[in-house]
Write a structure and sequence with these properties.
Hypothetical Protein Pfu-838710-001; 10-stranded antiparallel sheet; globular
Length: 175
């Protein structure tokens, strides 16, 4: 994988998020086929939740060599739209905050997979969520049309079982 490309993508993605701060428009799918050969980048993610109350979550994440603090609001009825605020923090701060999180951590590898003008973020989960692979795509509007590669499976947007904050409490391997 090209780590230079990965760094540039994530920096652009964060800049775009800051510009559009406050609104996350995202669709989520299960993965049913081989996507890895199309990935341009991959990195590990470790995350926990300071709060995973219904209606809001406060997440701490270490993504590659960067730390982040994220606050998310309640999703709308479709599960596509919700408030999101995210800031980069020092990795040592993220590590300290992870020690304060609710029980359970999410451990996953993220792959960036281009599809036309979009990029799918495909998460392969480990630990208590082993076997779960989810693809997410962030959109500029709910009406955006995007390619649906052959490896993309059932849409699970809005299905709370697939929220990371729920997977900590009700892991995939217990379903």
């Amino acid at each position: 994988m090209d780590s230079q490309r990965c760094g540039k993508y994530t920096a652009q993605n964060n800049t775009e998020r800051l510009r559009l701060m406050g609104q996350e428009i995202e669709r989520k799918f299960l993965v049913k086929g081989d996507f890895k050969k199309f990935a341009t980048c991959e990195f590990r993610i470790k995350q926990g939740y300071l709060s995973s109350a219904k209606g809001r979550t406060v997440r701490v994440r270490i993504k590659g060599d960067k730390g982040f603090l994220t606050i998310k609001g309640e999703a709308d009825e479709s599960g596509v739209n919700r408030y999101e605020w995210e800031r980069e923090i020092a990795v040592f701060e993220a590590e300290e905050l992870l020690a304060l999180c609710e029980p359970g951590l999410i451990n996953k590898k993220r792959y960036l997979v281009p599809a036309g003008e979009f990029t799918f973020e495909v998460d392969e989960f480990y630990g208590d969520n082993e076997g779960l692979i989810i693809a997410e795509i962030e959109l500029k509007s709910e009406s955006d049309k995007f390619p649906k590669p052959d490896w993309l499976g059932e849409e699970v947007t809005g299905d709370r079982r697939y929220y990371n904050s729920v997977l900590i409490k009700n892991p995939f391997t217990t379903w």
